[in-house]
Specification:
Structural class of chain B: mainly beta
Radius of gyration of chain B: 14 Å
Order of helices and strands of chain B: EEEEEEEEEEE
Largest sheet of chain B: 7 strands, mixed
Number of helices of chain B: 0
Helix content of chain A: under 10%
Number of strands of chain B: 11
Order of helices and strands of chain A: EEEEEEEEEEE
Structural class of chain A: mainly beta
Shape of chain A: globular
Distance between the termini of chain B: 39 Å
Oligomer: heterodimer
Strand content of chain B: over 45%
Largest sheet of chain A: 7 strands, mixed
Shape of chain B: globular
Largest interface: A-B, 25 and 22 residues
Helix content of chain B: under 10%
């Protein structure tokens, strides 16, 4: 299985400030077709997860442009340019390059 | 807008079988291009993929659960189902059904159900 790790696991942020979350995989997520099969999800309190970023760097429909994803291979980053109160929750990365699909442990973002 | 809704017992006895159904609305489960998935989340913990099914019936299971899991699909009812046998307290979790893209450019989980909490206890 591909093991996903995230850092930090807890992220207190002041509104308006930037935030960054790192995700690393135990194997490359770069497929032979050139796509990195890495997604980012946000699970807001009491809700189901929602897709933020797919294929490492593509914002899902309706996701504000303050969210961006980057990286390739085994190292990926989610950045929030200016954190807002509605961004609180747990952020998960997930790989889908091979089954079983696996998720990172999650990063809990909290507003200071 | 596709919507998914889980249904099933919220309490299961140890060693019995957990059975859940996901009803899909706003789109046909038979259209292709998507896997229909089950994912669970233990209380206060992260996400664990259980398995997928394609509309044609092909299934993919997490090896950690494969011996106990069966996912099936009923295209006439636009539903897919999960059965997990010989449950223990370790199977207590929130169970989500979800839609996973199948194509090379759409391999993400774009729609999730609200989740249903299943407790295993006597």
């Amino acid at each position: 299985d591909i093991v996903m790790t995230q850092s930090p696991l807890f992220l207190p942020v002041t509104p308006g400030e930037p935030a960054s979350i790192s995700c690393r995989s135990s194997q490359s997520l770069l497929h032979a077709n050139g796509y990195n099969y890495l997604d980012w999800y946000l699970q807001k309190p009491g809700q189901s997860p929602q897709l933020l970023i797919y294929l490492a760097s593509n914002r899902a429909s309706g996701v504000p442009d303050r969210f961006s994803g980057s990286g390739s291979g085994t190292d990926f980053t989610l950045k929030i340019s200016r954190v807002e109160a509605e961004d609180v929750g747990v952020y998960y990365c997930m790989q889908s390059v091979q089954t079983p699909l696996t998720f990172g442990p999650g990063t809990k973002l909290e507003i200071k | 807008q596709v919507q998914l809704q889980e249904s099933g017992p919220g309490l299961v006895n140890p060693s019995q079988t957990l059975s859940l159904t996901c009803t899909v609305s706003g789109g046909s489960i038979s259209n292709g291009g998507y896997y229909w998935s089950w994912i669970r989340q233990h209380p206060g913990k992260g996400l664990e993929w259980i398995g997928n099914i394609y509309f044609g019936g092909s299934t993919y299971y997490n090896p950690s659960l494969k011996s106990r899991v069966t996912i099936s699909i009923d295209t006439s009812k636009n539903q897919f189902s999960l059965k997990l046998t010989y449950v223990t307290a370790a199977d207590t979790a929130m169970y989500f059904c979800a839609r996973l893209g199948e194509g090379p450019k759409s391999s993400s989980i774009d729609f999730w159900g609200q989740g249903t909490l299943v407790a295993v206890s006597s």
